[in-house]
Write a structure and sequence with these properties.
This protein has helices at about 45-65, 70-85, 85-100, 100-120, 160-175, 185-200, 215-225, 235-245, 270-285, 305-315, 335-350, 400-410, 425-435; strands at about 15, 20, 25-30, 40-45, 130, 140-145, 150-155, 175-180, 205-210, 225-235, 250-255, 260-265, 295-300, 355, 370-375, 390-400, 415-420, 440, 460, 475-480. By secondary structure, it is of the alpha/beta class. It has a 7-stranded mixed β-sheet, with helices on both faces. A 6-stranded mixed β-sheet has the order 9-8-7-10-11-19, with helices on both faces. The chain has a 3-stranded antiparallel β-sheet with strand order 5-6-20, with no helix packed on it. It binds adenosine-5'-diphosphate. This is Succinate-semialdehyde dehydrogenase/glutarate-semialdehyde dehydrogenase.
Length: about 475
């Protein structure tokens, strides 16, 4: 790979300020999902290295937590500056191991870095409170303190931003971190560690555990009482498992799990804008995000018009190698993902759906999938209940506001939701009625470092980004002064 800073490409894990091999010498291969070519090898750590990493993070906490907020902020800011300086390199690594088109990868790097910038600033504003006492001789003060050692387990769909979104507020608060990135995309995580080292984080503050033994590593992290907090982004099943495992040591837990986002188009919507919003929300990252529109509900008066205009626009999306000019949809992460999408489409067609575009993988590649549009979808189809995680848009017809709110909420998930309409009364009623942590109104793009990202119901808990994002890494302590 042609990089301005070749040392960004690593083959070792990063623990206690050292680049380390597995003690048994094991390594695993990292592949390019577009053509399955080998990108390199990375150390495949086991539980003994995890225990060393936890001890290192615990020692480092004593140093890092003592620094002033201003000192922590300055190092975070340096880390942000380096991410911007080497943004193109980071994006190349990202496209190579994850597949998303290069401009989109560059967008992720800037989005990821924006959390570091934001929390470098927030670090200085962790204010407590003074509360009027409950007795004449009493004074009450509230402090906010770092929770301690934090474990972060992150997925492959945003190999960069899912790390910075957790780690930046943790480091800003004074915590130290152990990151277990996805085994599909460890290189982006290690490149961030190289820049963290250059930014000047003391040893042990920032650690990356690369491994294919996810369950074992997860157990070692959750069983250890030194780890006070777990932050996880990934599948609902694994999130529930980690929450159960964290119960024995009563860790603080933040979970960002699956979604089943409804995208509603009302009769009074601007259809052109709704089409563009639906494309942005549905086909970003080839449909592999937890906030991607999963069910498009279109009101009967504009149903056929929307399908026609939407299909024409989707047809223009070019599929291919993320490094090629003009490509909008890269490969799915692996063959298993393609099989899942194939199953969801055939189930929908068997149950009466109509295919207006796509519907199959590209014959020359095992992981490229044509953008697909399916109409007349119903709640009996598996794709109405499961997260599709592919470039497939199922469209459902509805009549009334009440009916669509009920249908949209008929899921155990509650992450992102979207709707397009122009009636002010309806906008308030629908926004309040949707049981979701986030609602995009006349927009398909809601992710930003300045707003609280997160879900309700089985989509998880906790919020990432914004002024609320610090809370997940802080404990509240109250001091009661008596005898005054
Ligand atoms: P996805 O389906 O998006 O890959 P996963 O939940 O399987 O979602 O993966 C998200 C992250 O969780 C990855 O880093 C993965 O290695 C890790 N992981 C998977 N299974 C476990 C487990 N049993 N314990 C801890 N981490 C796990």
């Amino acid at each position: 790979m042609d990089l301005k800073l070749p040392s960004l490409l690593k083959d070792k894990a990063y623990i206690n300020g050292e680049w380390v091999e597995a003690s048994n010498g094991q390594k695993f291969t990292v592949y390019n999902p577009f053509d399955q070519s080998e990108l390199g090898y990375v150390a495949d750590l086991g539980t003994s290295e995890v225990s060393n990493a936890i001890d290192a993070a615990n020692q480092a906490f004593k140093v890092w937590n003592k620094k002033t907020a201003g000192e922590r902020s300055a190092i975070l800011r340096k880390w942000f500056d380096l991410q911007i300086e080497y943004a193109e390199d980071l994006a190349k690594i990202l496209t190579a191991e994850q597949g998303k088109p290069f401009p989109e990868a560059l967008g992720e790097i800037k989005y990821g870095a924006s959390f570091v910038e934001w929390f470098a600033e927030e670090a200085k504003r962790v204010y407590g409170d003074v509360i009027p006492g409950h007795g004449e001789d009493k004074r009450i003060v509230v402090l906010k303190q770092a929770v301690g050692v934090v474990a972060a387990i992150t997925p492959w769909n945003f190999p960069n931003a899912m790390i910075t979104r957790k780690v930046a507020p943790a480091l800003a608060a004074g915590c130290t971190v152990l990151i277990k990135p996805s085994e599909e995309t460890p290189l982006s995580a290690l490149a961030l560690a190289e820049l963290a080292e250059r930014a000047g984080f003391p040893k042990g503050v920032f650690n990356i555990i690369t491994s294919t033994n996810a369950a074992e590593i997860g157990k070692a992290l959750t069983d250890n009482p030194i780890v006070r907090k777990l932050s996880f982004t990934g599948s609902t099943a694994v999130g529930k498992q980690l929450m159960r495992q964290s119960a024995d040591t009563v860790k603080k837990v933040s979970l960002e799990l699956g979604g089943n986002a409804p995208f509603i188009v009302f009769d009074d919507a601007d259809i052109e804008e709704a089409v563009q919003g639906a494309i942005a929300s549905k086909y970003r990252n080839a449909g592999q995000t937890c906030v991607c529109a999963n069910r498009l509900y279109v009101q009967e008066g504009v149903y056929e018009e929307f399908i026609e205009k939407f299909t024409l626009e989707v047809e223009k999306l070019k599929v291919g190698n993320g490094f090629d000019e003009g490509v909008m949809i890269g490969p799915l992460i692996n063959k298993k993902a393609v099989e899942k999408v194939n199953h969801l489409i055939s189930d929908a067609l068997d149950k009466g759906a109509r295919l207006t575009l796509g519907g199959k993988s590209d014959s020359d590649s095992h992981t490229l999938y044509q953008p697909t549009v399916i109409c007349d979808a119903t709640s009996e189809m598996d794709l109405s209940r499961q997260e599709i995680f592919g470039p497939v848009a199922p469209i459902f017809k509805f009549k009334t506001d009440e009916e669509v709110i009920e249908a949209a909420n008929h899921t155990e998930y509650g992450l992102a939701s979207y709707f397009y309409g122009n009636n002010m009364r309806r906008i308030w009623k629908v926004a309040e009625g949707l049981e979701y942590g986030m609602v995009g109104i006349n927009t398909g793009m809601i992710s930003t470092a300045v707003a609280p990202f997160g879900g309700i119901k089985e989509s998880g808990n906790g919020r990432e980004g914004s002024k609320y994002g610090m809370d997940d890494y802080l404990e509240i302590k109250y001091l009661c002064f008596g005898g005054i």
